[in-house]
Amino acid sequence: xxxxxxxEIVKKYYKDNKNILYGGYSAGVCILGPTLKGIHFADDPNQxxxxxxxxxxxxxxxxxxxxxxxxxxxxxxxxxxxxxYIEYMINNRIxxxxxxxxxxxxxx
Length: 108
Fold this sequence. Notes:
hydrolase, Type 1 glutamine amidotransferase-like domain-containing protein, serine protease, Class_I_gatase-like, single chain, mainly alpha, protease, two-stranded parallel ribbon
């Protein structure tokens, strides 16, 4: 998102309108929160598809005031890892919402 500039586009549209439709699955929804810390239990931050010169970004877009824990208690290979993520969030007092696969957040 940062390399393409999409992060700034989403933030600008949200700030200007508060009227956006955004669809994301897994990491696609996690990015809306304040932080990506803890998600390393499910996604390896050492994977560098764009090369070693690009560091892992831990900041979210701050559109939501809480982090999202996707795949909670779902039939997904990362579901057990999400339990560790939730434990991390609780231990570090980071607000979050857990979503099962198929659940959505609607803000009006």
